[in-house]
Amino acid sequence: MFKNIRQLTPFSLGLLSIAFIMSISQSTMTTAYPILMASFHVDASTVQWLTTGFMVAMTLVMPLSPWLLDNITLKTLLNIIVAVFLVGTGIAMVTPSFAGIIIGRLLEGIAVGALFPTFQSVIMENTDKEKRGVTMGVVGLVMGSALAVGPIISGIVLQWISWRALFALFFIVLAILIISLQRVIQNTHRIKQSKFDWLSAITLIGFGGVLYAIASLPTSGLTVFWWLVMVGSLVLLALFVTRQLKLKQPFLDLMVFKYQGFIPAMLLTGLSYSGLIIATVLMPLFYQRVFNLTPLWSGLLMVPAAVFLSQLNPRAGRLLNQIGLKKLVYLGMTMMIIGYSLLGVFGTQSWVFGLVAAMLLEGGNAFIMMPAVTAANNALPKHLVSHGTAIVTTMRQVIGAGSVVVASILVTTFNQSMTIGQSLSLTSGWFILVPIIGLLMTKYIREHK
């Protein structure tokens, strides 16, 4: 692992460091929900907005990343992204009201949504095709590990300090990091100025609307308002697609879908990501609700899975060039099937089974997600890499959010007639369908060396 990291340039390492710190913020809040509910006297559906709002803000900005890269020098863009994140974190850290935390999280989401496709595109563009597998394996290490260690860090901080300390930690570390990295940030992306298309930007609200509708389904149900939001968002997306096909310099160049192998690789990225994010959702519930462990121990028991993920990501990158994406998908999806099966059959017997299952689910993700991102972009010419990356990251977010919603609905529905342990086990059993779908998709994979 460390050998692969040392092979990266100081600039790439700087990008990965910023991404790692900002990525952790995605998954830290769920552990703090009970404390925030008590502190601000809000219910579960309200506190959920700390995650839902973050995800919606991310999704709104991700499709804008190709335009931002083409029109703002990279150093300036990175500084703006980090500044927005720091402002949001600062507001959330000192606010006396829950609304202030929501505003802070929205700003954090905007920054993370701009950063994710941007830093992946830049690293991809500056890496030869034959080396992309290993490099993106390291990127996967950063993305996956950050998501996995988020609950661990929040569990430790909340055990001994306070929820404000979480935001203070991100603020201080990221501020020091961006200041120290100023001398190594390079403007490697070629500027291609184009007019900002406000109509496209407005129709992009459709992405956020779809994600909001998906995320709010468990709490709101299929109300008239829900249908209005979903249908309205789909109409906006249809207008967005139509607009992009007419523009000479679109926000998102949808021609990427014409290249063989891009679509299945994109979908596989989302399916594998669901295994990682569902592990971070279900395992704390198993540990805390079934085995009555503290949030601290619940977080610490996620460490082995995070370490396993970090070890496998760079290895999966090397294997992509050696055996191809199809065999990696077979391996990763099989691991996910075994992981869900363990939770479904033995999840309530001992926390040890949960620990092993989490390792298999996160390890399976390592063999698929970033290799699939690499394969998707290897199918594209260099000038479309930023567009392909933006589309892949956006769709991955939507599929991941959909998985969380399905898990929430299943757990809630099953828990009405059985114990929480039984409902969690049955939900895990149903999720075996996800890697099975992934295996069925392998026949559409096209290898690009």
TrEMBL record:
InterPro entries: MFS, MFS_dom, MFS_trans_sf. Its main location: membrane. Residues 11-446 form the Major facilitator superfamily (MFS) profile domain. It is a multi-pass membrane protein. GO terms for molecular function: transmembrane transporter activity. It is found in: Cell membrane. It comes from the Bacteria. GO terms for cellular component: plasma membrane. The chain crosses the membrane at residues 48-69, 76-95, 101-122, 134-157, 163-184, 196-218, 224-241, 262-287, 293-312, 328-346, 352-376, 397-414, 420-441. Pfam families: MFS_1. This is Multidrug transport protein.
